[in-house]
Amino acid sequence: MNLTLNSTSNCLRLGINTWMPHIFILKHTKPYVMVGSMVEIMKIITDKLDVCWEWILANDLKFGIELPNKTWSGLIGQLTRNEIDVTAAPLTMSDSRSKVIDFSVPLYIDVQAIAHKAPGLESDILGFIKPYSYLSSRHSEQQCLVSLYVDLLSSTKYV
Fold it and tell me: Which residues form the Ionotropic glutamate receptor L-glutamate and glycine-binding domain (predicted)?
């Protein structure tokens, strides 16, 4: 397999950032020391491609956002400026990112949710009045009228 590298050292430049528990950077100065599942996956990929590799830390320790001047920060910026060849970081696929970088098939899919405190029971001195609010009493009045109308129709004898 042929692989075109953008660096002058002919080694694959792997952009990284801490992503617990998949990448944990133990030493933030060269030579970087990292542990985690994505570190092992990238070692397997580079071994299979039979290429040398070097870790390059995200220059601003960010994954990347689009700036007002239409450039990118973080690892995405480093990819667009050819400072790194590939990243092993969790980048969310979005339309704006897809316009400037290519994504592989996902290696990891995460589900995110918003959490909040569950409501609890609390005392309310006026709680017994709440079933008789304007809307519920209005709804009850309409139900009574419909019932009365149906009763009237059913009691009327058509000749």
Answer: 34-113
Whole-angstrom Cα distance, residue 111 to residue 24? 21
> Where do we find the tokens 């950032």?
17
Count Cβ neighbours within 10 Å for each residue of 119-136 and write b for 16 or more, e otherwise: eeeeeeeeeeeeeeeeee
Query: Could you read off the pLDDT of 11-34 as tens digits, one per residue?
Result: 899 999 988 888 888 988 888 888
pTM of the predicted protein model: 0.63
Q: Using CA atoms, how far apart are residues 105 and 14, in angstroms rounded to an integer?
A: 17
Residue spans per domain, the chain: 12-98
CATH hierarchy code of domain 12-98: 3.40.190.10
What gap in Å lies between CA 32 and CA 82, rounded to an integer?
Answer: 20
